[in-house]
Write a structure and sequence with these properties.
The protein is of the alpha+beta class. The protein is built from 7 helices and 8 strands; from the N terminus they run αβββαββαββαααβα.
């Protein structure tokens, strides 16, 4: 076939009538709420869809958080697609706004396996108010790692996702890490689903469900050997010692002055009596 014949061949255009729209539904974890619509020309399985957390909560503070879903099942009769949650991420401008001038960004990336076998890659950052020492950064990074690892061991993936998205994990990290150095914020900025067990099903979990408080053993190094509260108490103790040492000589001076006053009074009384006798 000549090149001219090849050029004459045209691909059939897809008209608007040929397009079939499918409604994308979120998993049971998000109450099967519709995310949007996609065109069903090619195979829909494996296609990813993004949505904002704001669409589920109607809270303007959640507008910077993007959720990612993957299509796992297609119902051609009802024209609906079922999805699975595969990760989340904050917008780049929001992440840049967290780090100010003169502050330190402490970041961890770790693979976590939940109680029911889901594996997530989680990225967490903590930002300090001012520049932190390297020794303090090491301790804070270990706190971040240990707290997330403890949560992953004890929680199913539904509750683990709720803790990442709605800020429970970052509150627990900030509660412990601020004892090492003052933090401006701590955030789980990104997560990605690496693998999931076969035949796994979602369970409905309320976002208002309470989490247990995680306690972590902290090994302090260098100047972090003494807690900040203990340092304050030591300073107060030193100040109280100094004030007591200053107050002791003043009391002695007062006693001496009082003795001299009594002696002078007695001498004046004796002189008055002698004058009367005369």
């Amino acid at each position: 076939m000549s090149q001219k014949a090849k050029r004459k061949k045209k691909v059939k255009k897809i008209t608007f009538r040929d397009k079939i729209w499918y409604v994308v539904e979120s998993p049971k974890l998000f109450n099967f709420k519709s995310i949007g619509e996609i065109v069903g020309i090619d195979n829909l399985l494996g296609r990813t869809v993004e949505a904002l957390l704001f669409d589920f909560t109607d809270n303007y503070n959640d507008i910077n958080l993007k959720l990612r879903f993957r299509v796992v099942n297609v119902n051609t009769e009802a024209r609906k697609c079922a999805t699975n949650f595969i990760g989340h991420q904050f917008t780049n401008d929001y992440i840049r706004s967290l780090v100010g001038r003169g502050s330190t960004k402490i970041q961890t990336i770790q693979n976590l396996t939940t109680k029911d076998g889901y594996i997530y890659r989680v990225t967490t950052i903590c930002t300090t108010i001012k520049r932190a020492r390297s020794s303090q950064q090491i301790v804070i990074r270990k706190i971040m790692h240990d707290i997330l690892l403890e949560f992953a061991k004890s929680l199913n993936h539904e509750k683990f996702v709720i803790g990442m998205i709605y800020g429970e994990f970052q509150n627990q990290i900030g509660r412990v890490a601020k004892t090492i150095y003052p933090l401006s914020n701590s955030t789980v900025i990104k997560s990605k689903l690496l693998s999931m067990p076969e035949g796994a099903k979602d369970i409905e979990v309320s976002p208002q469900e309470e989490f247990e408080i995680v306690e972590v053993d902290i090994k302090r190094i260098r100047k972090s050997e003494i807690k900040r509260t203990e340092r304050i108490n030591v300073k107060k103790f030193a100040q109280s010692k100094a004030t007591s040492a200053k107050s002791e000589p003043t009391t002695e001076v007062k006693e001496k002055s009082s003795e001299s006053d009594t002696k002078s009074d007695e001498s004046t009384k004796v002189s008055e009596n002698e004058k009367k006798k005369e």
